[in-house]
Structures are given as C-alpha cells and as structure tokens.
C-alpha cells in the first residue's frame, strides 16, 4: 500500500527475530470476556498465564505491556518464541502472534461539497463556480439538518494525536458532553486537561509497545510529544476530515483551495487515541510507527469509553495475515459486537491487485478516489510544447529560463551511483544550475527534497519527472521553487528536446485552483486493489471516497512538507492517500448513526454500499488511472453518497453471531466460548454481505442473502430483481420479486450464478475476475451490489 512517494497511511514494518530465544512482543488472545471478573481480577488472571511460562513472578510482571480488560480478552507481553509457543498450545487461547510495529507514511474546502453535503455557498475562490440548480445541495442540507450535523455521536480516531488549538476543533456553541461518555482526558507533555473541551471530549496515548521496539521515548530524538498531541499533522488531518467544525477562509500555502473547511459531521464529538509515534530519523519523513499492541489497547479503551464510530487510517503491508493474527481485525470485531462502526483505509499499494489491507468483513474498507477540484499549472518548452499539469507552487518565474537535465549537471562521481538524475542532497553543481530549470527524476529521496536541492544549487525551477516504475500519478507539493510534475511520457519528450536543441529553455506557469475538473470521481492509481488475499469470498474494498489532495487541519509542530529543513507553518495542509478517504466515510457514518441510532453496524455499511455511485458526474463509468473503466476491486460498490444512504430502501444486515459463523469458514474460531462452529460450515460467500465474490466458479454456485425493508415511510413496497452478469456467467435470483408489507420485514432470496460456455471467454480471460452487478428496485430505491467472479 505504498508508492515511492509519501502517501498518508500507516503500515506494517516487518520485525524479524534474529534467534530462537530472542524476546519479542506477542499478543495472546482469548476472545470475548465472560463478564464474570472485575478489572483487577482480569489482570491477575493474565499474570497467571505469564507466570506459567516465566521463571519468576518478577519476570512475569515486568514482561506484561497491556492487559486488555474491557471487551477484548487478552494481553500483550514480551516473550520468547518458545514461551509464546507454550501459551498457544493452551485450549482456551484463540491465537498467539508476534506483534509488529506498523510504519506510518502517512477535510476540507471541496470534498464534502462534491458529495452534496455543503450547507451554503462557500467563500473565496469557490465563489467562482456556482452550484448546479441545487436539488443535490438542498438534499444535502436537509440530510445534515436531519442528522443534526452529527450532534450526539462520538467518533474515535486511532492515529498519532491531535493539534487541539486548530480552529477545526473549537467547541464554540456546542452543547454538553453526551452523558454516555465514559472516557478521560489524559494529560502529558504540552497537553493538559484544558485541551479537551466539548468538541475534543477525550484523549489518550499508548506508547508501551512502541518503546518495546525502539527503546525509551526521547522527546528530542523523536521530535514528538509524550501525550495526545499531534507532532506531524496526520491525526489532526484525519480528525478534521471526519468531524471538524466549519471554518471560513481556509486555504493551503499559496492560497490554493480557498474556501470553507468542514468535516462531514461538524457537531459530532471527537475522542483521540494516539497509538502512533515519530521514529527518530534525520529527514523526518515517512517515519511514524504504530505498534499493534498499542493500537489494540486503544481500540479496547475506545469501546469502553462509549464511542459510536472508530476511524483507523492504518493498515498492513502484508495482505496475507489471517484475521486471527491481525490486531485491527480482532479489535474491530469486538467493536462491532457493541454496534460500533469501524472504518479503515484500504492502503496505498495500487494499482497492483491483491494489495488490500483491512479486509475483515466487519470493517468498512475504504479506497481513494478523486474529486472535481484540480490545481493546474503549466509547462512551456522553447519548441512550443505546452502541457497543463498539477501544481500547488505559487512561486513565479517571470520568463523562460535555460533548461538542464539533472544527470548533466551533477558533481563528479554521482553518475556511478546510478541516481545521477534524482537531485539528491548536494548532488547538483551550482555553477551549472544557477538561474536554470532542472529536470529531476523521482526515485530515491523525497519530492520536496529534490526541490530543496535545486534551490540550494541556485535553480529557479524544477520539472519533477515520474519514471515508468512510478507510473502516471503526479502529486502537487508545496515546493521551494517553481515546480511542475510530469508523467513518464512527458519526461521522454523533454529529454528529446534537451538532446536536440542547442539552447533548451522552459517556462513554468504557477498553479491555480480549478473546479468542475472532469472526469470525477475517478480512481487514484495508488489506492490498493482487491481481491482480498485473506478470503476472496468477500469482495473488498467496500467503497471509495475522496483521497487525493485533501485539505484539512494540520499540526503547528510540523511543516507542510514534513521535512525538518522546512520551517514554514500551515494551519491547513494537503494530504493524499486512503488515510484521507477513510475519515470521509467515518464522518458519513456519524451522520447516519445520528439519523438511524438503532441501525446495526452492518446495516450502515449496507446503506453506504448499495447507494454508492458506480458512475462519475458525466454519467459514465468511474475511470481507473489508465483511463479505462475501473472495477469493484478498485472502488468496491462505488463512490459514497451519504445523502442517498440515509434512505437505502433495503439493507443487508448481519449480527455478531453471523460473523462468528463466517469466521468458522476462515479458521478464526474460539472467539466466543458460547458459540461452537457447526459440523457443516457454510461457505464464506453466504455471509449476508452487500456484494458477492465467487473465486474459481465451476458450474453453479447458489448464494444466500436476506434483505430488510427500511424504506423511509414505505411500509408496503415491491422490489424487482435485475442484473448485469459478469462475462461468462449467468446471474438469476429466486425469487425475482420481493414484496414487503411492513418496515423491518425480512425477505430471503438466492442468487444462482452459473458458468456459461467456455467459448464466451478466451484463454487469457479464464481464471481472471469478471465483474457485474445485481439490484433490487421498487421504482424509487435502487439497491445495487457488485459481483466479482473468476471461472475455474
């Protein structure tokens, strides 16, 4: 889930044991608490297990990092592989697994408006575009009003903290803290009780797991705060995207995206769970780490504190980790049992297939797509070649300047390092660069760092070129020199021009904000793709939301570029990644919880999925990064539409026991001692999910589903089935007509998927996934679900 450039998401860093007796951090998981022990008794019970494998009571007590006491029954401890193996053999233990620190790479003035939730005409530059005659926006305003802007809903953010002074977290005009809240405001360095208010109602931090990997926390080396305070922007960005207050006159550096910033549920309450920390690194880029044991402790506390929604922009790089050894999946299952909805990011490893993170069916997995705002600059070469390109650099070049290729202006010896064109620190010769535009290639080093090197050498501008390995995704950054980013094909044109012209020159036009940019939404190239490598019977991701160039609150302790050399300060900043799309969905969930407080977690997911866009604003299929139609392994059910999700017509509901039964199909058993897997375990694709995935279809598969009538005011309704079958198969429903006589009534049906004749697919298509959809419609509601099928 990571490209060579920085994208906001938290990832797993492999932590390898060097020898069999080396101590590591393990999670010992027992499943659900029985509810028959007090908190201190639970901890003593966990100690007894450690004493059974440790040489002394002192060793047992010192090895314990966390005792998970609220919903999750388990503990985290420092063990040898042999000790872990002994515990894993115990009958009452569900799983024992080594915990890994997850590395973190890591709204808004446009994205909520783009999905129809803007309240009123925005300020500044946004006034240059007028709303379409505003049925869409009237619906959005009505939806927000009905949801009371999320008031009464508590959203928990597991991330790297918050910058409480941001205007996005003001509590002005907010009512009393919900009586259901049971959390605390944990104080620490640069964070006291006054930093919690009626908006940020709680804050905690977790560092024991981090310290077990990287040693005692050192404020100077870490450039972090031993408290819930956000040192690097990511936590503040995601929190304000989900639930930030409305703030007028907001923009990024240079005045880009000027407008009114707001989270999706601006009156929802915020609970902060800091489980990610800056790891010492000279450049301070792409270096945050989140220990799994810390995150599991955060989720356990969030459940006990009384949150309604949990947003987790964190994920694994390893798509093969089973749910029984995935801390986020385990924590999310316990949250779901308490009807807490968990949204998590899909990852930034696209467009390669099978790269998804957070694939458990009780998690809403969110991919990243674009919105209709772009930041357009320009490049003009001396031969007349002109290109529009993404840029958020406001620095101007008044005239054409000489153009050079970085590889031709490096210090002696750099060529031998095979990175001569990458503008790494101290690589360029000032006497050959001064006053010129430099073509630099991406690869090693940061994008911002390359511009800093060009400026150090006296250059006035930079063309930042993608290599074929990186692909076509270009990302605007707040560079220190006038900059444009270009794809590989343009790099070739520029190199040809430099080689064939005796005096090559270039002019870089400063960027400006452009609205109604089409096609939108479209899929980003970085967003991780399905199929799920843990269980391909569940179609993932579930949904997509804006994740490209999102403007949101930032940390006052960090620069826009996140580099220590950058001394600029920004209250709001652009970030890109599925870390940014996830809190969009979390904000929408908060609004839906406010409107439908009795809906289950599964019902809310179903409502979001079955009402999502599968087309863009031009009514054409959502495009992928290659310009071709994207498929459900990229966007799931489509681009989220919160206003439609409030009245989906029908929902695919699922209970905790349904998920336990599903877990039997993937070997994740023993979670609840009151539940025993049946002798005949139903296939995973029969989980009552709002999508269908059938790998290796041979002949016919019958999928069972149940829908519940939740139609707004329509107690009596008749739904008719229709389908667009994937290539090479037929899709039919039995029955094909469903009639409901009351709200809450359930109806069962079967989807019969049959492989067609071999001639329908050529040799290269066999074994590959084909896609389609099916829907139920009553003349007003359209309840649509994607299908993915591969033929054996």
UniProtKB/TrEMBL annotation:
Domain Inhibitor I9: start-end pairs: 25-103
Keywords per UniProt: Glycoprotein, Hydrolase, Protease, Serine protease, Signal
Domain PA, residue spans: 401-491
Domain called Peptidase S8/S53: residue spans: 150-638
Gene3D superfamilies: 2.60.40.2310, 3.50.30.30, Peptidase S8 propeptide/proteinase inhibitor I9 (3.30.70.80), Peptidase S8/S53 domain (3.40.50.200)
Active site: residue positions: 159, 234, 579
Family: Belongs to the peptidase S8 family.
Family matches, as PANTHER family: PROPROTEIN CONVERTASE SUBTILISIN/KEXIN
Protein's name in the database: Subtilisin-like protease SBT5.6
Species of origin: Microthlaspi erraticum
